[in-house]
Amino acid sequence: MGRRLNGSSLSSRDGRASWKRGFMGQQVMKRVWHLVFGILFSLEAGAWAQADPALITKGEKVYADKKCSVCHAIKGKGGTAGPAARGPELSDVGAKRESQWLKTFMKDPRTVVPKAKMLPFKGNDEELEALVGYLGSLK
Questions:
Q1: What CA–CA distances, in Å, run from 57 to 41, 45, 96?
Q2: What are the residues whose beta carbons fall under 8 Å from the beta carbon of 118, sequence distance 6 or more?
Q3: How far lies 47's CA from each of 3, 10, 30, in Å?
Q4: What pLDDT score was predicted for residue 84?
Q5: Taking 90 as the threshold, does the pLDDT of residue 89 lie above it?
Q6: What is the pTM of this model?
Q7: Every domain of the chain and the residues it spans
């Protein structure tokens, strides 16, 4: 009726082959699910999981040099601009936004959020990468 393969049997009922799960089949399925969930969670984490400490430090300096803290606060520090210019709290922006979204938004905020008050980032690509790395580390 069926043939044995790695502790599971392959039987054909109604002209279709189906695996009867034995111990080995359960182990394989468990590994497949771990792999699938691992991939999904690593994709969600994106580039943040591999942030370089030197890049984060440089990004923190860019944040200070570009005076981002006038409009934005991190852990309650900053955001001293009046209500009309105050931007969102950034303490956990790395948990909310992916790096590509942040790059696109900072280059031209109104292409992403049409009513954005933020001005486009004024700096080079290296500074932008560092700033995005720093913001991504904020969780």
A1: 26, 20, 21
A2: 71, 87, 105, 106, 109
A3: 46, 42, 27
A4: 79
A5: yes
A6: 0.64
A7: 2-45, 51-137
Given a contact cutoff of 8 angstroms between Cβ atoms, the answer to whether 136 and 102 are in contact is yes
Q: Which residues pair with 129 in a beta bridge?
A: none
Output the CA–CA distances (angstroms, integers) from residue 125 to 29, 70, 104, 107, in the order listed: 44, 22, 12, 10
Instruction: Say yes or no to pLDDT of 74 above 60.
Output: yes
> Rounded to an integer, what distance in angstroms lies between the CA atom of residue 128 and that of residue 71?
18
Specify the fold of 51-137: Immunoglobulin-like (2.60.40)
pLDDT greater than 80 at residue 20:
no
The confidence band for 45, taking pLDDT boundaries of 50, 70 and 90, is very low
For residue 55, pLDDT beyond 60 = yes
List residues bridging with 77 in a β-sheet. Answer: 74
Long-range (24+ apart) CB contacts under 8 A made by 56-60 are 56/130, 56/133, 56/134, 56/137, 57/134, 58/130, 58/133, 58/134, 59/130, 59/131, 59/132, 59/133, 59/134, 59/135, 59/137, 60/134
**Selection from 49, 50, 5, 53 nearest residue 25 by Cα:** 5
